[in-house]
Amino acid sequence: MDRQKIKTDLSNYFNAEPQADFRSFYSKAFDIVSDLYNSRNDISAMTGWINLPHDTSLYEKIKGFADKVKEEERYEHLVVIGIGGSSLGSQALIESINSPLWNRLSRAKRKGFLTVDFIDNLDPSVIRNVYNRLKFEKTLFLVVSKTGGTLETIVPILVAREWFGENFYRQCIFVTSEQKGLLFELSKKYSAPLYPIPENVGGRYSIFSSVGLLPAALCGLDIGEIREGLLYAEKLCQEKDIKINTAVSVALCAYFSYVAGKNIFVLMPYSSCLRKFVEWFVQLWAESIGKAKKGSTPAIAIGATDQHSQLQMFSEGPDDKLIGFLKINKHKRDLTICDYSADHASFAQYADYKVGQILNIELEATRKALAESGKPNFLITLPELNEYYLAQTMYIFEVATAVCGFLLGINPFDQPGVDLTKRYTKEALVR
Ligand code: PA5
Prior knowledge:
The protein has 2 domains: 7-40 and 225-416, Rossmann fold; 44-223, Glucose-6-phosphate isomerase like protein, domain 1 (Rossmann fold). The protein has 431 residues and is of the alpha/beta class. The protein is built from 15 helices and 10 strands. The chain binds 5-phosphoarabinonic acid. 5-phosphoarabinonic acid (PA5) binds at residues 83-86, 145-147, 150, 153, 202-204, 287, 415.
């Protein structure tokens, strides 16, 4: 298939940050990329996520299982219990491709694929609502935790055990470590299937393991296309031409902006479907980059919605932000506006435009206005929002995050700063 390419436009970035001398950092950034790829089989380097698209048997196994679930028609609902890197990636994949309104579609419109609810917090009203609403016999539970002992994952398990009885475990699939941990032990005890998370893949880099692929396939996403996108992104990320290598471009923009005092990195897609994608990015960036008193704070904005909320701050507020725009060139199932000038003369100007086209015109207008205000921004354009381009984009952001981390001299694969909270919570729970 002849595919179009994801494009990156840095012109507004260089206009606002003319002193950013990318060339001086090219070789350093490319060395980091080489080190990443060379360390992919080193367990201690935690770069096993780079190998995931090459695990063909994993893709076959997940596709086979999802096809079987669909054919058997035993299940209608999926509940994913997990938090952070064990949930946000699958939320991002499913919402971006299926839209945030997936659960409201009829079974026929969902082509027999499962509805999905995510339990990723200890909010009793949400847990109660999800468990109350679902038909237990028709529900498959996917319990996801690399360590297997995360509080926010264990508690909804215990509530489900009380709510549905011991049979709950018989409708569970565990995605966890293959060797140890509470979920591993439960899967053994109840003979429940276990899909392993490789030891050298950290939580927030685990989206393209079973963690993200299994829920995605059960909700009808084409994981073969995801894999194609990842394999192509792998080539792009090792490309020495900066015009082609979006991952290195984004890493350098973020690095130079941070050095120039831009402490906030806003990612602003012009699509409501990409809200969860940005939430996934925020976690990836914050847990990877925020260390040793360094790192820009990631922030979410959605176009055009936030033009009527945060844009004032972006354009006339402090010079402390880098803004990354994401554009979808051709929106899926776009809507054409008819000529209703007879109703009101002003409607004539909208006639024959598509809604997605107007959204993209707004994006360009915002970029232009911000550039005129001297605010650095870059644009990444996806030809379409499908599995192939979404997977590519997510992989590119994973590599960009890792490269920026190493440019800043920190380890993007650990998260020591969250351990103290865990310890204090544990201590407070002891009676
Ligand atoms: O990126 C990370 O490592 C974290 O965000 C984890 O994904 C999160 O804390 C959940 O951990 P676990 O998968 O062990 O339950």
